[in-house]
Amino acid sequence: MRYPEVLVQRTTNEADLPDIISFLIYGYQSVSKTFKKLIGRTETRTVDIFSICNVRGRASLPVMVLTILVLLILTAGPLSAQPKETASLSPEKTKVVIGPFLEQLEDPEGALTLADVQSPRTHSRFRPNTYHDIHIGHTRSTWWFRFKLKKAPDHQGKKAGGNVHPAYFIEFDKPGIRSIDFYIPIKSDVQGPAGIQWIVKKTGMGRSFAFRDIPFRTYILQLPENFADAEYIYLRVQSVMSINMQVTVWSVEGMTKRVWLDTLGFGIIYGIMAAMILYNLCLLIFLKDRAYLYYIIYMASMLLHLLFGYGQLTVLFEIPPSIHQTLFWVILGNVWLWSIIFVRIFLDTPRNTPRLDRVIRVVIIVALGMILSGLFQFDRLTNIINNLLCPVGSVLGFTAAVLCIRKGFRPAWYYLIAWSVLLAGITLYAIGGILIERSFAALYTLAIGSAFEAILLSLALAERIRTLRVQKEELEIRESRLKEMMLRDGLTNLYNYRYMLARLAGEIETAQRLDVALTLLMIDVDHFKQFNDTYGHVEGDKVLQQIGGIMIQCSRQSDIACRYGGEEFTVILSGADIKDGFHAAERIRQAVAGVSFFPRVGKIVNISVSIGAASLKKGEKEEDLIKRADEALYRAKATGRNRIVIFE
Asked: How far apart are CA 160 and CA 177, in angstroms?
């Protein structure tokens, strides 16, 4: 089924549509043309999503989301129908949608009265409403609507004063409408022309809460029991927001079920968001990660915005009309501000996308400007800023996520999916009543999308913490390895001279404090210069490497083997007296003596070491201990080498 051309013409020619609505309309028209080409201009409504979204074998998430949105628009059902003359009430009906029975009249100056619209001159100017609901859009004009209600023959009763109907309620389902004047005719034998008396009920965002018959998030008024049968009922509507709403007459049973299901649905949605906020608040307390703080503020702002936008907050606190619009702009500005700050911190754009981060910082300033503009009641400027932030914020979110994904930041996938779900909800909510009828998808997907976003972003934070923890562990391992490399000798893999001095000072301090023994070994390779001069430095390095390995093998886990410099080595024996030191030195001496080297073909060389040992004395410093061990080593070399000398 093709949509009537009047839909596109009527909507796109609306001069006072805001920028964002125009953007959505033109985008819709462009995408519609593209899809007509893709599906061959056929009449079918089924499209293979995956064949459209498959780009070189890889599904593109933004394209898929856009496809789903367009398909929802295309499958939303006809938006126009021939208007019917009279809406009929019967015991079997719990709900009657008034849209198809409405006639409408534009009042650009807002000066017409009830008597004016009833006059023969104005009466003929009413035009049928060709939509299922009221679809006026953004306008500065006042609009009049009229319709007739007729009771079924078996639906009548008698009471003094005229016909009696069971209780019925009429609902206007958009909370943001500024004023609604509801004129109901009542049969009377003594008052009014043709025996008609009028009851006027007034409600809307710009009216006191006391004007509402039922304390509900939308505007619900009770029909008088004796309203005139099949006489015109009039509505006068004025709003700074778009006039797009469904008008429904409910029976008591239908109204009860509608309120119960609506309250239950929003209770589940808001409960999910509140649970996510409390859960992440606990994580913030324990993890001290500021990303959780910005998530909490962002989700709290979004929850407050939904409560305000869907009308629950107004009912709960009976917000005065004078500050209603100001609060709306301030809350919405905070949603923009904290969502952008959260994106910046969560995706770490200063590090991952520094160029884009400059743009994000500018958008943060713009969001602050929106809050201030709304606070000082510059409604027109605030609306312009909001319309600017809608496309810019969407593009920024997608771009930042995609760039971070390309850099291997896995949590950005969760954010991209969460943002896509929310964007789908925002888009359907924005075009509801303009491009598609105000169906369940158009009315509730913003709230549902926000709840799913809260869950997905919570998962994203958990994945972010896991990713950062893994990255931190890997960084610590790399730093530990680098630090270890800086502390070790590159040739022998023993600790170097600098580390030996620092560690020896620490071990001496511990030994003095705990009154435990400490022994230092000084080791020198015998005739190493001669070996180097004869066989070369390469073969000499092999000898040093082999001796380094022997020292590690012959030492305890608590011992600290170091290369002192050149062919000299040291071993710090913590908790070992001079006797234990001698045994350790002997193990090293014998192990070195038992190794043969082959510096040339057919040439076998054995290497020996001389070792000096000294045990720590009370009050002695590291330089004194090194000096005594070195002196013992000198005596070992002077008395024949390949031996151990203890400094007494």
From this structure: 37
What are the 10-residue block averages of pLDDT along the chain, 648 residues in total? 31 36 40 40 34 37 51 45 71 89 94 93 89 85 94 56 66 91 83 74 87 89 87 92 89 92 94 96 92 96 94 88 89 95 93 93 96 91 90 90 90 90 83 70 86 93 87 85 84 91 92 92 94 92 93 90 93 93 93 91 90 92 93 94 90
Alpha carbon distance 123, 103 (integer Å): 10
Judge contact between 616 and 517, C-beta under 8 A: yes
State the pLDDT at residue 557.
87
Two tokens, residue 185: 């005719």
Q: Are strands 219-223 and 54-55 parallel, antiparallel or unpaired?
A: unpaired
Distance CA 429, CA 90 (A): 32
Tokens 């939303």, residue located: 76
The answer to whether the beta carbons of residues 175 and 205 sit under 8 Å apart is yes
Burial of 627 (0-12, 13-18, 19+ CB in 10 A): middle
Cβ(423)–Cβ(394) under 8 Å?
yes
Q: How many CB atoms lie within 10 A of CB 126?
A: 16
Beta strands of 493-623 (E only): which ranges? Answer: 518-525, 560-565, 568-574, 596-600, 603-606, 609-615
Angstrom distance (rounded) from CA 582 to CA 259: 92
Distance CA 493, CA 569 (A): 12
Instruction: Quote the crossing angle between the two packed helices 252-287 and 290-309, to the nearest 10°.
Output: 170
Q: What is the DSSP string of 33-95?
A: HHHHHHTTT-S-----HHHHHEETTEE-HHHHHHHHHHHHHHTS---B-PPPS-EEE-TT-SE
| pLDDT at residue 88 in the model | 87
- What Rg, from alpha-carbon coordinates, does the chain have? 42
Q: Residue 186: which H helix or E strand, with range?
A: strand 179-187
Cα-flanking dihedrals φ and ψ of residue 571, to 5°? -135, 125
Buried b (16+ CB within 10 A) or exposed e, 210-246: eebeeebbbbbbebbbbbbbebbbbbbbbbbbbbbbb
pLDDT score at 543 = 93
Residues 6+ apart with CB under 8 A from 98: 87, 147, 170, 247, 248, 249
For the four alpha carbons of 313, 314, 315 and 317, in that order, the dihedral sign comes to: positive
d(Cα 460, Cα 299) in Å, to the nearest integer?
14
The owner of tokens 């009696």 is 164
521 alpha-carbon distance from chain centroid: 62
